[in-house]
């Protein structure tokens, strides 16, 4: 059946709010020959946003012009291998942006929200978790209670962000600058934090914690065991993707539920963990793995193995990416929980139709496609700043550069 063809593919970059290097958003817009019919996708890779833009504007646009936007799978496969080298970040983000935009177009053509295209709702809304942080156990407790009063049943608890903020042991003279942290002090502080939270709040709240892959493997195994009595909802990114073999040891040692996948970019990384049932939640950054097409396959793979989803949803995902998370969440029988940072006021204005969160749940739009748009004029008023991130320059007390 003849239909619209793709007439333009381009990246829109914007940094709503204070212009932070940590919030450089990338949206892909795919336009078609049918007047007013276009789609939006999230390609956000904050740390290398200009690289993603180059791939979208200089390589995907000429590749996709003239194609039928309804042939999503064929276009996905075509983009995936077009550079011959494949399956890494930057190109995956560009692919994701195009892929999500095509799903948006298909939904608009069908007059249905994307969750209907996925088989319809399994639930009305997705349970969310938010981040409680503080410099003392009492501060964290207060934040957890505030979220519980807002209706949340899941809260992530950290002490001083990733790696903690304890006093640091002496570093060698001349140690290089960086984001220093002490793994021993960090682990002790987190065990103390969860002792406190379970004593004061009890076991009502579903508590989560993110290690951010900062421990050496055997310490990570011990840490997961130490937290077992605290019955976490999940322990996140206990190990880096390069050390996934160690998850077998963790599994043999304790029943702390494990969430993994924020840094994964291809199936070679997640397949062993799923096939051997070594994790309990998959939580990839959907715009780093190839968009909804890739995430839907991964979700189904996990469903068959009894593993739940908890897609990455921090501030450096665009509202389009959050919408994609939520549409998939409500259509997935094996949905677990959705990370939620909330939107800035300017973001809501820039992206009309942002998913709405209330009483601990986020609801998808019922409008066709993702149900969300972008005000390009407003986006242009918040250009992305140049610069590199500091927090990813992690170092341990002896000055060694380590995973962030
Ligand atoms: Mg994380």
How does the SSE layout of this entry go?
Elements (H helix, E strand, L loop, with lengths): L5 E9 L10 E8 L5 E5 L6 H16 L7 H11 L8 H20 L3 H4 L8 E9 L2 H13 L4 E6 L19 E2 L2 H18 L5 E5 L6 H10 L7 E3 L10 H7 L4 E3 L6 H9 L5 E2 L3 H4 L1 H15 L2 E2 L9 H13 L6 E2 L5 H6 L5 E3 L2 E3 L12 H5 L13 E2 L9
Bound molecules: magnesium ion (MG).
Brief characterization of the structure:
The chain is built from 14 helices and 15 strands. The radius of gyration is 21 Å and the shape is globular.
What percent of the residues sit in helical stretches (DSSP H or I)?
A: 25-40%
Tell me, rounded to a whole number, the average pLDDT: 96
* Topology as a string of helices (H) and strands (E): EEEHHHHEHEEHEHEHEHEHHEHEHEEHE
First-to-last CA distance:
50 Å
Which stretches of 5+ consecutive residues score pLDDT under 50? none
Q: Class of the largest domain, according to the CATH hierarchy?
A: Alpha Beta
Tally of distinct domains: 2
Describe the structure.
- With 404 residues, the protein is of the alpha/beta class.
- It has two domains: 6-113, Enolase-like, domain 1, CATH 3.30.390.10; 117-367, Enolase-like C-terminal domain (TIM Barrel, Alpha-Beta Barrel).
- The chain contains 14 helices and 15 strands.
- Strand 7 (206-210), helix 7 (217-226) and strand 8 (234-236) form a beta-alpha-beta unit.
- The longest helix is centred in the N-terminal third of the chain and has 20 residues, at 91-110.
- The N and C termini lie far apart (50 Å).
- It binds magnesium ion.
- Magnesium ion is lined by residues 210, 236-237, 262.
């Amino acid at each position: 059946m003849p239909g619209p063809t793709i007439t333009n593919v381009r990246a829109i970059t914007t940094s709503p709010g204070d212009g932070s290097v940590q919030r450089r958003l990338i949206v892909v817009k795919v336009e078609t020959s049918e007047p007013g019919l276009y789609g939006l996708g999230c390609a956000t890779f904050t740390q290398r946003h200009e690289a993603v833009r180059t791939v979208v504007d200089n390589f995907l646009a000429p590749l996709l012009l003239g194609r039928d936007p309804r042939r999503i799978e064929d276009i996905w496969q075509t983009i995936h291998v077009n550079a011959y080298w494949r399956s890494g970040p930057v190109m995956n983000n560009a692919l994701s942006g195009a892929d999500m935009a095509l799903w948006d177009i298909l939904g608009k053509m069908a007059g249905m929200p994307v969750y209907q295209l996925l088989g319809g709702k399994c639930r009305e809304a997705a349970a969310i978790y938010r981040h409680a942080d503080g410099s003392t156990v009492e501060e964290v407790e207060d934040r957890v209670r505030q979220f519980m009063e807002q209706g949340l049943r899941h809260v992530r608890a950290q002490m001083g962000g990733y790696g903690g903020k304890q006093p640091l042991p002496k570093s060698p003279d001349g140690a290089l600058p960086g984001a220093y942290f002490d793994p021993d002090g960090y682990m002790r502080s987190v065990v103390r934090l969860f002792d406190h939270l379970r004593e004061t709040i009890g076991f009502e709240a579903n508590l989560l914690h993110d290690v951010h892959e900062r421990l050496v493997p055997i310490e990570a195994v011990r840490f997961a065991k130490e937290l077992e009595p605290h019955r976490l909802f999940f322990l996140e990114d206990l190990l880096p993707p390069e050390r996934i073999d160690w998850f077998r040891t963790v599994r043999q040692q304790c029943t702390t539920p494990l969430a993994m996948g924020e840094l994964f970019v291809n199936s070679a990384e997640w397949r062993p963990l799923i096939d051997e049932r070594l994790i309990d939640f998959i939580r990839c950054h959907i715009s780093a793995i190839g968009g909804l097409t890739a995430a839907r396959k991964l979700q189904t793979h996990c469903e068959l193995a009894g593993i739940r989803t908890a897609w990455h949803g921090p501030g450096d995902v665009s509202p389009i990416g959050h919408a994609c998370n939520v549409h998939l969440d409500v259509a997935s029988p094996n949905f677990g929980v959705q990370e939620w940072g909330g939107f800035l006021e300017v973001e809501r204005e820039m992206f009309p139709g942002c998913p709405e969160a209330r009483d601990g749940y986020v609801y998808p739009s019922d409008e066709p496609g993702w149900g969300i748009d972008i005000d390009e004029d407003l986006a242009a008023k918040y250009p992305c700043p140049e610069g590199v991130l500091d927090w990813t320059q992690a170092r341990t007390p002896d000055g060694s550069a380590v995973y962030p």
